[in-house]
Amino acid sequence: MTISLRHARVRYGPVEALHGITLAAPGPGLTVLLGRNGSGRSTALRALAGTVRLSGGAVVWDGTDVTRVPAYERARRGLCLVPERRAVFGSLTVRENLELAAQRYDFALDAYPRLRPLLARRAGTLSGGEQRMLALSRALLARARVVLVDEPAQGMSPTVAARTYELLGSLDACVVIAEQRLPPALHRPPALVYELSRGTVVFSGEAGELRARG
Q1: HSE (side-chain half, CA atoms, 13 Å) at 162
Q2: Across the chain, how many H-helices and E-strands are there?
Q3: Cα dist from 179 to 14, 52, 73, whole Å
Q4: Which of 53, 84, 83 is CA-nearest to residue 70?
């Protein structure tokens, strides 16, 4: 299973955010998109999910061109996007958020025990780290074939962040995460790392190769 961008271009008005990039994320496995703010990593995730339209190039999923397939249809086919912001339903309780993903959600509470005493709280009142836990819990429960996550451990403690990367790495899915830096908490090196800068790919390879470059 692979999802890929092929010579993908994305424009926001007069500004081109992706300059014809090509990358492929195989699964099951973990792929990391690295880059500073403005590098295009978040745009690349959204392009894979279909929440932004390509101005050129293609999105290919399991050998099928899905460039013109809308985001909601990609979700129906098994793609789950966890954006950096607004990843939970703030007016609903933690329990209601989880129930939207699955009727049985014990696995999510075992993954993030901090959520258990917060089940009756409205998600919008949670801290940033707690909202990330809830958003990731919903993604874990979705049993998606492709999981795209923008800065999964934002606001989390190092211990919870390490647990998060362990959970994502163990999924039987194609997992793509966007990060500013290569996470030190990754116990298993990602299959692939793509480093983006100003809308272009400046490095692709294994995590060990990137670390060796310093």
Answers
A1: 6
A2: 7, 10
A3: 26, 19, 26
A4: 53
Answer for the pair 46, 32: CB distance below 8 angstroms, yes or no. Answer: no
111-163 tens-digit pLDDT: 999 999 999 999 999 999 999 999 999 999 988 999 999 999 989 999 999 99
Mean pLDDT of the chain: 92
* Dihedral sign computed on CA atoms, order 91, 93, 98, 99: negative
Nearest to 135 by CA among 111, 158, 162: 111
Beta strand pairing status for 56-61 and 192-197?
Answer: unpaired
Q: Is the pLDDT of residue 179 over 60?
A: yes
Half-sphere exposure of 193 (CA within 13 A, CB side): 21
Task: Take residue 83 and report the two structure tokens written for it.
Answer: 């954006």
Token readout for 70 is 């809308």
Compute the radius of gyration of the chain from its Cα atoms. Answer: 17
